[in-house]
Design a protein that fits this description.
mainly alpha; Rossmann fold; 3-stranded parallel sheet; 5 helices; 5 strands; globular
């Protein structure tokens, strides 16, 4: 059973308040996925997903985004380079094989602050870019 940790919720909530749009892409088809998405206000949910690249393309199309505007975080081999041109993130407890080919490996594990760490980085980059002349 997956636990919903406060750090995970804080990262999503902070990002949503700052204008980030979240999607939840999962290979699972569990009521827990729906429950978490509702709790976090995530409207774009792709469950029982066998092709995460296709889900990202659909998310981009539905939201009017370019793939280069999308950041993706995953923790196992089925999450390798699913088509995002922005940042590829992995939590600290991701499988070793996926840590070698990403832009950011967080210091926190999945469900324990990894999303918050990624959101902080994204917002820091955005805020830095907004301050540039």
């Amino acid at each position: 059973m997956e636990a919903f940790l406060v750090r995970r919720c804080d990262g999503v909530s902070l990002g949503r308040r700052a204008g980030l749009i979240f999607a939840l892409v999962s290979g699972e088809d569990s009521p827990l996925v729906d429950r978490f998405a509702r709790k976090m206000g995530i409207q774009d949910v792709y469950k029982d997903c066998k092709d995460k690249a296709a889900a990202l393309r659909l998310f981009a199309q539905n939201r009017g985004l370019e793939l280069a505007e999308i950041c993706f975080m995953g923790d196992d081999v089925n999450d390798l380079r699913p088509g995002s041109g922005r940042i590829q993130g992995r939590p600290a407890d991701a499988h070793a094989s996926v840590k070698r080919c990403v832009d950011l490996v967080t210091t926190r594990p999945g469900g324990g602050g990894a999303v918050r760490e990624l959101v902080d980085r994204l917002l820091g980059e955005r805020d830095g870019a907004e301050r540039q002349p």
